[in-house]
Structure formats: C-alpha cells, structure tokens
Amino acid sequence: MAQQDLPWTVLRLINWTKEYFVRVGVQDPRLAAEVLLAHVLDCSRIQLYARFEVQPTAEQLAAYRALVARARAHEPVAYLVGSKEFYSLSFKVTPDVLVPRPETESLVSEAVEHLRALGRPGRMWDACTGSGCVAVAAAKHVPEVQVLATDVSKPAVDIARENAEAHGLGDRVRCRVADLLSLPPDCPEWSQCDFLSANPPYVADGDDVAEEVKHEPSIALYGGADGLHFVRRMVAAAPAVLAPGGRFAMEFGMEQADAVRDLVDDTDAFDEPVILLDHQGLERTIVAVRL
C-alpha cells in the first residue's frame, strides 16, 4: 500500500505532525502534536498511547488539521486548546494571560517549602498572577494558606479566579486587580505576609522573542528599555509587605541576575539573596528572606 493510501491512525497523525512541526519551527513538536490530538479526541495525552491504531472520524481529522494550521502560524498550543499543565495541575489559559512555563514552577516550590515550615496558617501574596497558576498551585499543596493573587489586568484576574474555583480553592485564593504591590482596600490582612512571589514583566522593549510569545499579552511581557522597570518597583515595595522572616521569590530574565541581586541588596531589608537556576540551567529566580 502506498504511503498516501495508509489510514490516518492516531500514531501516524502524531508522527506526521511532529515532523511537520519540526520543519516549520513549532516549539516542542511532539508534545504539541499530542496535545492538539488529545484535545480533538477529548482524551488525555497518556490515553493516546492506548489508541495508536484508532482512526479519527472525518470531523475529528478536519478539526485537528485546522488546529495544526493555526499552530503552524505560531499560535500557542495552550491558547488553541484553552489549557496548560503547570505543577501537575491543569489551568485555563486565554490570550489575556501568559502561558504558564516550567521555569516559573520554582516560585511554587519555594512557597510550599516556606509556608509548610511555618507551623501555622500562613499568608502568601502572588503579584502579577496572570492565570493564577502560582497562587493556585501553592494553595493546593499547602492546605491552610490564605493567598492573595493580584494583577493589573482585570481579564487576567477573572481567569485566575476561574482557576481558583475550578480547583476548589475559591475560599482560600482571593483574586484582585492591583498594580504590583498596591494593597487592595479589602485585603488589609496581607499588609504583612509570609511569602511574596512575583513574575513581573521583564522583557526589554524591542527585544526579540519567539514567534509564539508574540501572541501573548504585551502588558505581561515588556518591562521598559532594560526590562527592569517593574522589577525595580517590585523590589523597592517588597520589604513593606513582608513580615520579618518572610520570603520573597521573583522570576527575572536572561542576563538580569546581577542587576536584580544588586537591587535586592540595595534595600538593606533582606539577607543574602540566592539565585536559582531553571530546568535549562539558566539563572531565573531570586529568593531572599526579610530581615
């Protein structure tokens, strides 16, 4: 049987799409192919492996090909399927929020470690929350913590609230519109919190970014001429909202580690900051404890 006459099984679709995505430069080609096909077939990615010989219907093939064409145009796969896995949890995402990324999971790990060690119910503030992935994941893993999740974007806050409620955390994750660390009027309890996390915009204006990233909200990406406009504001305001012994963890961009460390040192409000590497071995997160 000629190659073109072979049936379009799940396995053949995955292999063909992976090779196609490699040629056209789609990120994580095999993963992208599997996520799109699982979405069309209304199953999990792992369930695809038990369905390699299944032949999708004509309607499913048409829907899949339409999604592949949009991914070819570098629309983020997470936006195409409406969700993204982060810290082993599923989060709703739309073009109003950044796509959650593995490097941001270190903020959750730091929060969980610190809040569990308190020996009492703690308070966490997640600024620039976007989809709420950090806030929700931390609350999911620390049962008694109360979390404030804020963002300057109301559409983002609405998504964060949906995600909190979807994970049964609407009573412990309070989502509010706020500019960086401006305390919402109805949240006075967070004036001295135990953990502060932030993933502020840190891409320098004019810097080149991946084609997929260009589809994400610019308000959550760009941080001025050197990328540090919002980082500076965040660091300067952090000491005032952290209780003594509280931990501050913030993500930053490539080649910004020295500048961010200096900003934290210059506050004279923290102990010696620690720079954490992401899964690619790049300096990505600063962690410091309030004196």
Can you offer a commentary on this structure?
- The protein is of the alpha/beta class and 291 residues long.
- It folds into two domains: 3-73, Orthogonal Bundle (Helicase, Ruva Protein, domain 3), CATH 1.10.8; 86-289, 3-Layer(aba) Sandwich (Rossmann fold), CATH 3.40.50.
- 38% of the residues lie in helices and 18% in strands.
- The protein contains ten helices and nine strands.
- A seven-stranded mixed beta sheet has the order 5-4-3-6-7-9-8, sandwiched between helices. It has a two-stranded antiparallel ribbon with strand order 1-2.
- Helix 8 links the parallel strand 4 and strand 5 (173-177).
- The chain is elongated and about 70 Å long.
- It starts with 9 loop residues before the first helix and ends with a strand.
| CATH topology grouping of the largest domain | Rossmann fold
- DSSP summary: helix tally: 10
Helix content: 25-40%
Enumerate the spans where pLDDT stays under 50 for 5 or more consecutive residues.
Answer: none
Distance between the termini: 73 Å
Taking all residues together, what is the mean pLDDT?
A: 96
What's the topology here?
Layout (H helix, E strand, L loop, with lengths): L9 H15 L4 H13 L3 H4 L9 H15 L4 H5 L1 E4 L2 E4 L12 H13 L5 E5 L5 H9 L4 E6 L2 H13 L6 E5 L15 E6 L30 H13 E10 L5 H10 L7 E4 L5 E7 L2
